[in-house]
Amino acid sequence: MAFAGGLAASGYDRELAYPATRAAKLADFATLHAEAVMTNREAVEGRAVILSLVTADQARAAAEETARSIAPGALFCDLNSVAPETKRHAAQAIEQAGGRYVDVAVMAPVHPLGRKVPLLVAGPHAEAGAETLTAIGFTNVRIVGDTIGAASAIKMIRSVMVKGLEALTAECLLAAEAAGVRDEVLASLDASERARPWAERGAYNLERMIVHGGRRAEEMAEVVKTLDGLGTGSAMARATTERQRAIGALGVAPTDTLDSTLALLNARLSPALGCAA
């Protein structure tokens, strides 16, 4: 939805297959003036450019399904947040079917940037991919290598810090609240870093986990694959996966303040494991 506005695009979403979600998803397509089709085959047959935008756990399956119908020479731009290994498996399916696979990493939240979001592009067809993405309105595209996995490796390794900080925020602030020293801990963090007050940063990070923890856990599982492949260790990434999943699994709406967010999480999480109670 972040990318389709203003494009002569058609698309397939699995929510179209289920009566409970079909009407709302059709309304989304109508809002963007994009054509909704009922199968992946209809979405990709005869198309010169395909953007794959699914959850991390479905990225390889989406590529394998698309390979059954992809036109010879069509560009398959894989913008999913997955490990280089996962992208190489997806590329194999697409290339064997005659398509051209492009490894694309999305390097910032897509809202509100839309097609202004920074993209890194890699693989043997990176140049063609970059030119095509630019032609359809992406304004910040950079080639980072001719090897599939080069772009995704940058995204995955960056996620160790970005998503790891969110998980560390939860662990730190929940403990500080339980010990009754939250204000002192926040003040000590503010004293060492002035870019953004930690009360504000903490509220933001926890809100991100409540809303997106399930999806981010799947992405972090791909980060673990990346680090294991490098042999550099993945203990924190594994822990981050579980913390993101536990908070995302609560299925609650985010609150307006740090006080109310911490109260909500403390009431719903198991103190010992940080799992949903």
Automatic annotation (TrEMBL):
<dbReference type="InterPro" id="IPR036291">
    <property type="entry name" value="NAD(P)-bd_dom_sf"/>
</dbReference>
<feature type="domain" description="Phosphogluconate dehydrogenase NAD-binding putative C-terminal">
    <location>
        <begin position="176"/>
        <end position="246"/>
    </location>
</feature>
<dbReference type="InterPro" id="IPR008927">
    <property type="entry name" value="6-PGluconate_DH-like_C_sf"/>
</dbReference>
<protein>
    <submittedName>
        <fullName>6-phosphogluconate dehydrogenase</fullName>
    </submittedName>
</protein>
<dbReference type="InterPro" id="IPR013328">
    <property type="entry name" value="6PGD_dom2"/>
</dbReference>
<dbReference type="InterPro" id="IPR006115">
    <property type="entry name" value="6PGDH_NADP-bd"/>
</dbReference>
<feature type="domain" description="6-phosphogluconate dehydrogenase NADP-binding">
    <location>
        <begin position="21"/>
        <end position="106"/>
    </location>
</feature>
<dbReference type="InterPro" id="IPR015814">
    <property type="entry name" value="Pgluconate_DH_NAD-bd_C"/>
</dbReference>
<dbReference type="InterPro" id="IPR051265">
    <property type="entry name" value="HIBADH-related_NP60_sf"/>
</dbReference>
<dbReference type="Pfam" id="PF09130">
    <property type="entry name" value="DUF1932"/>
</dbReference>
<dbReference type="Pfam" id="PF03446">
    <property type="entry name" value="NAD_binding_2"/>
</dbReference>
